[in-house]
Write a structure and sequence with these properties.
Blueprint lengths: L1 H73 L2 H12 L14
Length: 102
């Protein structure tokens, strides 16, 4: 009988060990699931922010290109002529200025 009792105690101890191990493994799996969900949400928000920043970069590159082109234009006599016509309402001496009737 002593052998049967020790066998039962050993089986109980083994079952308790297995149950504890199973509980620990399940706890780790659930924890990893929450961590994966959190990381997935962060990755999605980072991807959205990256797309937003890329569009801002493209817009700024466009503005930089326009600025360079305007800088080139400002160095020409044509720009001075356009500026004089639009801002100062100047005309060449041989031009005839026609104003519409109001």
């Amino acid at each position: 009988m002593a052998v049967k009792r020790s066998n039962k105690k050993q089986k109980r101890k083994q079952n308790l060990t297995r149950l504890t191990l199973l509980a620990v493994v399940l706890f780790l799996i659930v924890g990893m699931g929450f961590a994966m969900k959190n990381l997935s949400d962060k990755a999605a928000s980072y991807a959205a922010r990256e797309a937003e920043l890329e569009s801002l970069i493209a817009a700024e590159e466009g503005r930089a290109y326009e600025y360079k082109e305007m800088s080139k234009l400002r160095q020409t006599l044509r720009y001075i002529e356009i500026l004089a016509r639009e801002k100062l309402n100047l005309v060449f001496p041989d031009e005839i200025l026609v104003k519409p009737e109001e």
